[in-house]
């Protein structure tokens, strides 16, 4: 999986047509300052530091659902808080890796491969991000 993620990152850095250029104002926290540089989201240094209760589950749920709906290869009508990546959203392994990487960028965190392989539903992703101490 690490090789796939590295390959996707290399492709993203060489192309400007990445789906990550799509930024929904409803998916960005009002206190975070975000910009797009070279097709990737960049978080400003003035964004607030982590505090123990900085992300509530309902905020994470909204941002994850908005993120999934913004990805071109996912049917927005099938996105729900309990959707299975493979069964409901028809994501293959490569698509799932893209979703995990998009979530890493959205929440400014790193998801280790062994954890990423366990995330198979929207609910798993929401729970993982909600419980991650560095999620922004």
From TrEMBL:
A Gene Ontology term for the protein's cellular component: mitochondrion
Entry-linked Pfam families: PP-binding
Signal peptide interval: none
UniProt-recorded Gene Ontology molecular function terms: acyl binding; acyl carrier activity
Gene3D superfamilies according to UniProt: ACP-like
Pathway as given in its UniProt record: Lipid metabolism; fatty acid biosynthesis
SUPFAM superfamilies, per database record: ACP-like
Protein name: Acyl carrier protein
Native organism: Rubroshorea leprosula
């Amino acid at each position: 999986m690490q090789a796939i993620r590295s390959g996707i990152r290399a492709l993203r850095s060489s192309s400007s047509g990445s789906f990550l250029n799509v930024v929904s104002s409803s998916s960005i926290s009002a206190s975070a300052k975000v910009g797009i540089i070279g097709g990737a989201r960049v978080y400003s240094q003035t964004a607030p530091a982590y505090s123990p209760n900085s992300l509530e589950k309902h905020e994470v749920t909204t941002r994850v659902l908005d993120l999934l709906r913004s990805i071109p290869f996912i049917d927005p009508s099938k996105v729900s808080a309990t959707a299975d990546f493979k069964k409901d959203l028809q994501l293959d392994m490569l698509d799932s890796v893209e979703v995990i990487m998009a979530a890493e960028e959205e929440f400014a965190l790193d998801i280790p491969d062994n954890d990423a392989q366990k995330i198979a539903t929207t609910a798993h992703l929401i729970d993982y991000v909600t419980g991650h101490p560095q999620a922004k």
